[in-house]
Amino acid sequence: MSCYITGCGAALPARIVTNEELAPQLGVTPEWIEAKSGIRERRWAEAHESASELAAIAVREALNDAGARAGQIDYLIGGTLSPDYQVPGIAPLVQRTLAGCGNVPAVDLRVGCCAILYSLQIARALIESHAARHIVCFGAEAQSKGLELNERSAELSMLFGDGAGAVMVSHQPHNSANDFALRVDDVLIATDGNFAEDLGVRAPGSGNGARWLDTGQMEAGLHRPAMNGRSVILHAVRKLSEAAAAITTRNEINCAQIDLVIPHQANANLLRSLSAQLRIPDERIVSNVARYGNTSGASAFLALTQAKREGRLRPGARILFLAFGAGFTWGAALGQVINLPSGC
Amino acid sequence: MLPETVMTYLHDAARQSRTALPDRNTSLFAAGVLDSFSLVDFVTLLESECGIRVADAELRPENFDTIARVEAFIERARMN
Asked: CA A223 to CA A241: how far, in whole Å?
């Protein structure tokens, strides 16, 4: 039994933060940011915008795109590194804003930039087990609110942008308003917790001593995103290459048969390394990192929506999703855009 | 001693970064010879030129921070 992505949506804050605006705050030049990351600008949420608000916009758009109503949703799965609150999660906050949505399960996944893969895996399992028929998966971030803006944090703070993306996943392709359906054929996900401290936000947390947040932890910056960038890229390139090889091999295809790669948008240099390792030309790798930066858990959802809007998800196209994030978590998903009979 | 191809890579990287290759105990990262992105290529080169496979658990930047550490790492990897 398969499941199908029948619609997708995106939401971005209106505020554009260019390298020219950000660089002086980080003690670097705009050119340095672009050379290191390929990023020219990113969107940052205003004070009144939260991750759940961006998510709700993206989810509504995904529902519209799929020709579905909120009342049809059986399950909501959300991923974020920058939730509105520590508890409850972001998914209940999105559920309450969707007019007509029932009191359905609404859960958060804390898997960083791999939100799309983990949520698709779970959605697929829920559909195959007949626990649900229509599931909304989303990723949303307002990471800019946690960034430190000084020279010490330049390599990290130059990267992140805010935004949200969502998909409607259904047991059948027939509810699509736009004759679009992407069949999810396989999902491969993995974790290596030995590198948990190399990427993440440590506080508030019960692993930091007597209090889950105190002034000492804040002075040490534990409440801000932190990244061992060298470790992350070393593992990301290797794990993503291995995941791509594994998922294509077990589905008896090779990377040359992939029409479009939709990766987590970490930074342009990582995407280039990936392109070289997989021997897939740049033009077959969807990239929005120059305009939106690294939008963490939202990024692959945003890239998928962009690819659909640009008409790159043609019938028959084989799509490879790739993501790597905190944990470390990583993986791949394989799908194919299907031909829908007219009138479906 | 690192293979000549590896040393040539480091000399080229230093030249591109308009710096000199530091002594064997000084950080290649701090000197600007390696960064996050060239590190991926460097590790790939070490694997092919030194006939080793860097295990996931050993895939840590500190193992490649100085020429001395790289040499020690290669020696350990060859013994395992």
From this structure: 32
What is d(CA A95, CA A10) in angstroms, rounded to the nearest whole number? 17
Burial of A192 per CB tally in 10 Å (0-12, 13-18, 19+): middle
C-beta separation of A322 from A278 below 8 A: no
The answer to whether A294 is a known catalytic residue is yes
- A114 in active site: no
* pLDDT surpassing 50 at residue A285: yes
Minimum distance, in Å, between the CA of residue B39 and any CA atom of chain A = 7
Cβ–Cβ < 8 Å for A253, A335: no
Under the banding of pLDDT at 50, 70 and 90, the label for residue A174 is: confident
What is the complex's ipTM, to 2 decimals? 0.89
Distance in angstroms (rounded) separating the CA atoms of residues A151 and A208: 26
Q: Are A266 and A294 in contact (CB under 8 A)?
A: yes
Q: How confident is the model at residue A269 (pLDDT cuts 50, 70, 90)?
A: confident
Element (H, E) at A337: strand A329-337
Task: Check whether A343 has a pLDDT greater than 50.
Answer: no
Picking from A285, A289, A300, A288, the residue whose alpha carbon sits closest to that of residue A255 is: A285
Of A192, A194, A233, the CB nearest to B39: A233
Quick one: which of A310, A311, A318, A316 has its CA closest to A291?
A310
Query: Nearest Cα to A332, choosing from A271, A273, A260, A248?
Result: A248
The pLDDT mean for chain A works out to 94
Residue B57 gets which letter from DSSP?
G
Q: Does B14 touch chain A (CB under 8 A)?
A: no
Q: Do A233 and B40 touch (CB under 8 A)?
A: yes
**Residue B5 and residue B48 in contact, taking contact as beta carbons nearer than 8 Å:** no
Give the model confidence (pLDDT) of A110-132 as tens digits. 998 999 999 999 999 999 999 99
From the list B56, B57, B61, the residue facing A230 with the nearest CB is: B61
Q: In what order do the strands lie in the sheet with A106-109?
A: A106-109, A75-79, A134-141, A163-170, A3-11, A182-191, A329-337, A318-325, A260-263
Q: What is the mean pLDDT of residues B33-61?
A: 90
Distance CA B42, CA A38 (A): 21
CB contact (8 A) between residue A231 and residue B60: yes
Alpha-carbon torsion angle A330, A80, A24, A35, nearest 10: 20
- Of the candidates A61, A86, A108, A115, the one whose C-alpha atom is nearest the C-alpha of residue A333 is A115
Known catalytic membership, residue A194: no
